[in-house]
Specification:
This protein is mainly alpha-helical. It is built from 6 helices and no strands. Helix 2 (about 60-75) packs across helix 3 (about 90-100), helix 2 (about 60-75) packs across helix 4 and helix 4 crosses helix 6. The longest helix is centred in the last third of the chain and has 18 residues, at about 105-120. The two termini are about 50 Å apart.
Length: about 160
């Protein structure tokens, strides 16, 4: 099968391309100039391949949960109050501090945290404060970490 495609593209001047590339990425140790070969025998200059890692951005829910857990690690965790006299917070208090406002990320992070609490500790929990006040620090931390992993896997 012979497929012939006609384009209106101009041919690329390889010398001009190579000169432009050298201007963008100069070689600190220039190679000695070789005798010029006929244009038909020269190979086109090839740019080095650079491995690029994919960039994964943290979603607002994952960021809110991560920031809230960092807040708990820094300031402490408490039960039975939003903020205790030493500045430690309960789970809702940490979420509020991390989100800065009751925005969509705050609501979604709270819903994901409560859903994870129900997965680990049963469906009876209706609110984050009731769950927070009824469990140990290790149990609460386990739920936080699982919620962060879920947010990460969901890219939210």
């Amino acid at each position: 099968m012979n497929t012939h495609t006609k384009t209106d593209f101009s041919p690329v001047d390889q010398d001009l391309y190579a000169a432009a590339f050298r201007l963008l990425d100069p070689d600190p140790t220039p190679e000695p100039a070789a005798p010029a070969a006929p244009a038909a025998l020269t190979a086109p200059a090839q740019a080095p391949l650079i491995a690029v890692q994919p960039v994964r951005l943290t979603g607002p829910v994952e960021k809110t949960l991560t920031d809230a857990l960092t807040f708990l690690d820094t300031h402490g965790w408490t039960r039975y109050s939003l903020i205790n006299t030493e500045g430690a917070r309960c789970s809702i208090g940490a979420l509020r501090a991390a989100a800065g406002a009751r925005n969509a990320a705050y609501c979604d992070a709270g819903n994901l945290l409560l859903d994870e609490a129900r997965r680990q500790h049963g469906r009876k929990w209706q609110t984050i404060p009731s769950w927070n006040d009824s469990h140990s620090g290790a149990q609460v931390r386990s739920v936080w970490e699982a919620a962060i992993r879920r947010a990460h896997h969901m890219s939210i």
